[in-house]
Amino acid sequence: MNKIVHKDNIQNNVSQKQLVDMFDRSISYLRVSLTDQCNLRCLYCSPKAIKDKLSCGELLSYEELLRVIGLAAELGIRKVRLTGGEPLVRKYIDNFIVGLGKIEGLEDIRLTTNGVFLGKYAEKLYQAGVRKLNISLDTLKPERFKEITGADLFDKVWASIEKVVSMGFHPVKLNMVALKGINDDELVDFARLSLTHNVQVRYIEFMPIGKASLWSRERYLSTEEIQEKISVLGELHPVQSAHMDGPARIFDLIPHSVRTNEKKTGRVGFISPISHQFCERCNRLRLTSEGKLRSCLLSDNETDLKAVLRAGGSDDDIRQVLIQTILDKPKGHTLQEKDKVNCHGEMSRIGG
Ligand code: SAM
């Protein structure tokens, strides 16, 4: 085993394995795309044009996933996010999450979802130990929701959000991709939500990814532009990021004037892969729905872990692939330098 990537991390007198890459980044977070299928057709992510979906046999089975994640946890992975595609369209996901919860060393299981089936699964997810949810929501207008996603389901998603908040999931993060000319007139309304609801609103810069992307400079809004727009509502005060927090920069939103139905302070986050590259803090590894390991969302380099699994690979073979992928993790991406799509894989397969 390669010693470069394996350090001992002593915390509270407990020694834990830690995976460290060539640039001294500790890799503790695995994002897993459970399926490339999605029940929505967001115009910037997965339009109808993408027809060649993976067959069931092409996806890693739950047994294969549990094996890989178990080995990754032994090596030092502490946090797993289930994403896709839409993870809640994969059958028996609740049983799978129960299995994940039994993996020793895994401290945190999170889910990213479009929320459509969340109401149905909320209790099961809660029982399985999931507490942290990211829900993608690009608009608060039902008609616009239909235009963006191709489905008239805003009310259903909103009801799911209210349900999970009232059940005690925390944090519930609402992810909105800021798209100029599409939803930028709602930036302030989203920020206000953090004052009226127990949610954290997170603004994501639109990235040039995949064939489906309608990305262009004209559609892109930088974090600075977003912050400028929401400053009419209040002041932003940076919050120290917590253990295992992702790349979002989090702020308290302190309103200029407080209405009776508002909390005193809301919390908003900004994910700024283009304007504030966070590669030096990136702690992520990805497992795509095709069973490939990928160390950077924005680089098409992948290792075929499924091939190793299905050729009868031993646990050591799998560990070696995990370690090698981490060793090959690039220092950073070059998105700022090129106004073009430089990640050709689809977000739904890689796992957004
Ligand atoms: N179906 C789930 C959902 O909707 O949350 C999980 C998968 S989806 C691909 C994950 C996230 O990726 C969503 O928040 C989506 O808005 C975001 N996303 C997709 N394409 C993107 C792009 N080009 N730039 C920024 N975010 C993108």
Automatic annotation (TrEMBL):
> Which SMART domains does this UniProt record tie to the protein?
Elp3
* UniProt: S-adenosyl-L-methionine binding residues: 44, 85, 136, 207
Q: Which residues bind GTP?
A: 31, 81, 112, 173, 284-286
Q: Which GO terms describe its biological process?
A: Mo-molybdopterin cofactor biosynthetic process
Q: In which pathway does it act?
A: Cofactor biosynthesis; molybdopterin biosynthesis
Cofactor binding comment, as recorded: Binds 2 [4Fe-4S] clusters. Binds 1 [4Fe-4S] cluster coordinated with 3 cysteines and an exchangeable S-adenosyl-L-methionine and 1 [4Fe-4S] cluster coordinated with 3 cysteines and the GTP-derived substrate.
Cofactor(s) this protein requires = [4Fe-4S] cluster
Under catalytic activity, the entry for this protein gives: GTP + AH2 + S-adenosyl-L-methionine = (8S)-3',8-cyclo-7,8-dihydroguanosine 5'-triphosphate + 5'-deoxyadenosine + L-methionine + A + H(+)
Sorted alphabetically, the keyword list is: 4Fe-4S, GTP-binding, Iron, Iron-sulfur, Lyase, Metal-binding, Molybdenum cofactor biosynthesis, Nucleotide-binding, S-adenosyl-L-methionine
Broadest EC class assigned to this enzyme: lyase
Q: Domain Radical SAM core spans what residues?
A: 22-248
Keyword Nucleotide-binding annotated: yes
Bilayer-crossing regions: none
Residue positions annotated to bind [4Fe-4S] cluster 1 are 38, 42, 45
Residues bound to [4Fe-4S] cluster 2 are 279, 282, 296
Report the EC number(s), separated by commas if there are several: 4.1.99.22
InterPro entries reported for this sequence = Aldolase_TIM, Elp3/MiaA/NifB-like_rSAM, MoaA, MoaA-like, MoaA_NifB_PqqE_Fe-S-bd_CS, MoaA_twitch, MoCo_biosynth_MoaA/MoaC, rSAM
Q: Which PROSITE patterns match?
A: MOAA_NIFB_PQQE (PS01305), RADICAL_SAM (PS51918)
Q: Which PANTHER family match?
A: MOLYBDENUM COFACTOR BIOSYNTHESIS PROTEIN 1 (PTHR22960:SF0), MOLYBDOPTERIN COFACTOR SYNTHESIS PROTEIN A (PTHR22960)
Family of this protein? Belongs to the radical SAM superfamily. MoaA family.
Q: How does it assemble?
A: Monomer and homodimer.
HAMAP family reported in the protein's UniProt record? MoaA_B
Function according to Swiss-Prot or TrEMBL: Catalyzes the cyclization of GTP to (8S)-3',8-cyclo-7,8-dihydroguanosine 5'-triphosphate.
Designated name of the protein: GTP 3',8-cyclase
Q: Which gene encodes it?
A: moaA
